[in-house]
């Protein structure tokens, strides 16, 4: 078992066994893959929903459906755009960390990553939930309130929104997993044998 000395404030001494190093490496690779997935799918969601539109001829009037007509879709586009940008920054951090062979043992940085991941997880899940609810109403209507089934008129528009919503669902689920991983990484800094070591990744 080897000892890694960290001599700056806010850092903790770390003991690493060979098995722990292997686990740390796998966790970092999994984190990198998930953040890349979030980045790609976040952009895909924003593009699919943000560029979606359909013109419908109603008698002599042309009505164009856009994502801006539904505030929930605007929220979905913004949330996934922000999630993609945030994940890109984290991907760069992960790559630099893996290239240098560093392990996360800085508590302030761990708290910052944990907080950011938690916020993004809540935001993306809320965006998917709001967009899904609006989509169900658009698909099925609301007879009690005399709201018509919009998707009967704008089929192409609704289909593309559905594709974007499916992509956004994967983004939110991946973000939840990432937030759990960052929480695990953070609280490992406070665990272990206090007299001997503090584990981290």
Task: Walk me through the structure.
- With 201 residues, this protein is mainly alpha-helical.
- Helices cover 65% and strands 9% of the residues.
- The model is unreliable at 1-16 and 193-201 (pLDDT under 50).
- The chain crosses the membrane at residues 32-51, 72-99, 119-140, 161-187.
- This is CASP-like protein.
- Keywords: Cell membrane, Membrane, Transmembrane, Transmembrane helix.
- It comes from Fagus sylvatica.
Sheet with most strands: 2 strands, antiparallel
Order of secondary-structure elements: EEHEEHHH
Write down the overall geometry: elongated
> Which class do the helix and strand fractions yield?
mainly alpha
Number of DSSP helical runs: 4
User: Taking Cα atoms only, what radius of gyration do you get, to the nearest Å?
Assistant: 22 Å
Report the uncertain regions. 1-16, 193-201
Q: Trace the largest sheet across and list its strands.
A: 1-2
Strand content: 5-15%
* Strand segment count: 4
Average pLDDT, to the nearest integer? 79
Summary tags:
cell membrane, mainly alpha, 4 strands, CASP_dom, two-stranded antiparallel sheet, disordered N terminus, 201 residues
Protein topology:
Blueprint: E1 2-4, E2 14-16, H1 18-50, E3 53-58, E4 61-66, H2 71-100, H3 107-140, H4 155-188
Antiparallel strand pairs: 1-2, 3-4
Provide a quick synopsis of the model:
This protein is mostly helical. The protein has a domain at 67-190. The protein is 65% helix and 9% strand.
